[in-house]
Amino acid sequence: TSSETELRVMTWNLGYAGLGEESDFKTDGGDMLLPPSKAIVEKNLTGIKATLKENPADIYLLQEAAGDGLLNRGVNVRGQVSETLADWSMFFSSDIGSKILPKPLRLDHGLATFNRLSNREPQIIRLPSEPEPILGFIPRHYHLQVSEVTVGKDVWTVINLHLAAFDEGGDTRFKQVNAVFELAEKLHAEGKMIVIGGDWNMRLTDTHFPSTSTDDALFWIHDFPKDKLPEGWKLVFDETVPTVRTNERPFKANENYRTIIDGLLVSPDVEVVEAKGIDLGFRF
After folding, report:
1. Which tens digit of pLDDT belongs to each residue from 173-184?
2. Quick check: 63 and 14 in contact, CB under 8 A?
3. Are residues 126 and 95 in contact, defined by beta-carbon separation less than 8 angstroms?
């Protein structure tokens, strides 16, 4: 913030409304590829919509904001979230390319920025991709949504991201984060105040929430390279509230490993007034 403006930004990976407490997931070492039932997806979506409504923000940075597709049993998550946030301009960009599949099998996933302060289209900037497509044939289009917002005399740049999760050794993630740092410094040199938020898929801080998960459930976890952060830039999160749990089994308190991978990165001229995590117990 500056004397003129204050901005409230919320980030949330919605998990396509398919990854609530009842779900596990195959790529995480679980058994299921789909959520247990359509009713459970609808229960998750009801909780997601209520949470968004109860926590008004100027800008919501949402990831895995899915349309109706195979992975969420045909429930249009993004459409219903848009109705809930009807006073915000919504910008969606897909990060999974499955247009070759017939409609019921299609994956309609990606980033959605909901912006109450501007209806200007964000700029899309591509990020390095993994060498292999998902399941061998579905390409993942990693990118940033870069939104510019003018409030009073201040120009803010707010960026939505979702980095790779299952890249070997975290290689793609580290390339992506370096590209993000480069862009951030370039934009900051142009005089913009910068907020970058989303699902970094990296542990933002050392956490010690109780857990009985074994090491093989933590294969995807890598630490955020804080030593590479440009000088004066700050990571912003609530260290008391975990933002992810391992999906090797359905969620039970103090059993699945939990840590913090979602948060904001702000430029040196941004003063952080408050950072608050919302603990939903991974129900939705």
Report:
1. 999 999 999 999
2. yes
3. no
